[in-house]
Predict the structure.
Amino acid sequence: MSKQISAGLALLILFCLGTGSFLPKGHAQAGAASSTQHTAIVSMTAAMLKETSELRELSILKSVKSGAQSRAEIERMVIKNLDAETTPAEMHAAEVLLKVFGLAPKDFAYRSFIIKLLTEQVAGYYDPKAQQFYLADWIELEGQKPVMAHELTHALQDQHFNLKRFENWPKGDSDAELAAHALIEGDATLAMTLYMAKNPLVALAFIRSLGAQELASEQFKQAPRALRESLLFPYEEGSAWATQLYKRGGWEMVSQAFTKLPQSSEQILHAEKYFAYEAPQKLALPDFNGTLGLGWKKLDYDVNGEWGCYLILNEFLNNAEESKQASAGWAGDRFALYETGKPDEVFVAQLTAWDTSQDALEFFSAYARRTAKRYPDGKELKSDDDRFEWQTASSKVVMELRGSRVAIVEGVPSSTDANKLLNAIWQQR
């Protein structure tokens, strides 16, 4: 499970429950784990492991333990992992980050919502510590086989590539961590997809099990869009990326990616960037405590990545193609998040780097449009080719474009000179 829960938008809900499967499911109610289901899963594991090993082209180094869990047991696992590996401060920072970018309502309770969401959506997970996988006990057994193929791919990954090494990712580069998880989940999702293609009757049973009853997805439907899309990213975008590697060099190239890790969400979104191994620029921001004044506390310091930039833009532009275009050409970024603890006193600084000055201009222009929509009751103070200022009800947003870089300060208090904040950013570069 990732400790970087407070990190960039790219990782806002990437809780690695061991290595979990996000798969919408049908049966809405479940009691204690069925002993019959548990026994059946255990008995099927060896045969499924052999089939998955042959499909994924990874040899079996040891047998894999398995079992079934009820909804209540999965919820306890979610809470246990959250409490063990995510501090209250990190959880608070994740919630503040969502709200400052307008990605969640002001009354959004992050921790309680994410527990309900993951309990609802996790259909199975592999635990690298215990080297065991569990499946939800409310899906019919035949419909479980594709999920087993997914989880057993994780088990084989762990045997060959040591998944535990991803558990303590260095703080401050969540975009790269998201890319690594997209590799892990994309690989397993591709293997599951190929398994279903080889076993069409099993695939039909899987689909039938999902549609047997109304999908239990109320929390997912209620989730802020940025959370929903981020939860899906490692599976959808990761699978598309793994497919590109598979087409180019078969499973061998996918396996090699565990040594030559993808470095950013940009490399996941654009496989050609991975093939060229185009590394992101490492940017830094100054400490703003002295400039902001007394009472301000830094909550987070991280990287949003191309994916995070897309989420921030699209929440208000509400145009996926436009937001993707404006986020493309990303070359690196860094953000810093501060608060006083008082309502509406939250400050975030961003420095973004782009491949070309045209890419930077596209992002600058899109972010200006996003800001106007983000604060509909605000007032435009300045709008030039290289500077944009917007007055909100309680603070300012100021942006500057310089060549292939864009600096943004948002939530600037009235008592603080925005120019001093921006100058500090440019001097740090």
Remarks:
- The chain has a mean pLDDT of 89.
- The radius of gyration is 22 Å.
- The domain at 289-428 is CATH 3.40.1000 (Protein Transport Mog1p; Chain A).
